[in-house]
Design a protein that fits this description.
alpha+beta, Heat Shock Protein 90, 2 domains, seven-stranded mixed sheet, 7 helices
Amino acid sequence: MTNRVPTFSLQRIIFLVVSLVLCVQVGWWINVQIRESGRLLQARTQALKANCAQAWQMDSLNLLSSIHTRSDPASLEQRRQAIRQNFPHVAVVPAPLSRDDLALLNGAGYLTLRPEPMIELENQRWHSVFRAATEGAFMVVAVLSGFVLLYRKLEQELDLKLRQRNFTSAVTHELKTPIASLKVWTETLFTRSLPDEQKERIHGLMEKDLDRLQELVGNLLDVARAESGSLVLHLAPLELGPWLHSVCDNMDQRLGPGALGLKLEFSPEPFWVSADPKALATVVENLLSNACKYATEPRETTVTLDGDGDDVFIVVSDQGQGLSHKDLPRVFHRFFRVGDELTRQVAGTGLGLFLVKEIVTRHRGKVDVASRGPGLGCAFTVRLPRLPRPEDG
């Protein structure tokens, strides 16, 4: 399991700078839209006010023309109708409504702009501003969402490359250590005369190294099969109680009698599942192996077997190294290990828990991990669909 190197570096700084520049650019564009819409409103307002001047000019020319030709001048109502017909945005009022209103000749009233076109222009202006702001916000959200997706993808790729590099280092170490040990013991056996007792002890150490190599190669092969979809399980009804007791006892002997501080808490009720005993044993063995690796002596490891409705669950809990909250979602990822590969003292490749999840998933089950924090241990829960007892059909 590995702690990722902090990534608040060049990539994150570039992402933040690009996001800030984008927001500033969109803000500037919205500001330009507001200014331009304000100028357009002002231009349209001036054009409407020019209508007042044109209406006044038309009315004055008609009045002066009638005086010049000595014909009867148009009545006040006729003058108003003519203005209304030619300039629908202009109204004739008896008293001025603003200082820009123009007085008609002969006291016929004052020319002023109707409020409706001004209100319509103002609404159009705010609609254009709202549309510009909405488009800008949508563009920001769309581009930033794309940046976030690309950034996360890049972060995942970098994290995978780091874990693959750590995996290569771990596998190299896992292969080199037992091979070097076997080489030393082989040279010792063939170059020295040793008493039978010492030969027996060396034979036991060599068997442990060979078991370590066999377990590593087996895990690598199982992971390769799982990734290629060729991991075949031979499912059959299995009573978990006796089987799990046997697996735990065997692992306790392999790791050293009493090394796990093993405590079994099994419900007296018989639990049956459809499982491949060998593959499911790999799950329990990997969990117990982790409990041994990541805890210091004296260890306390508890294996619980119980049922919950239609499920049966196996819980392997320890008092070991524990996990931080940010590591919990990634603990079953391929190659993931906690700690720095260069300074880590715990052996492993980061494939054990990945294989655990693959096997449990292929049993139509689920596996979860919980931890109260670093140094407070972990609890792995394997849930499997429960079968009725074979004799019950």
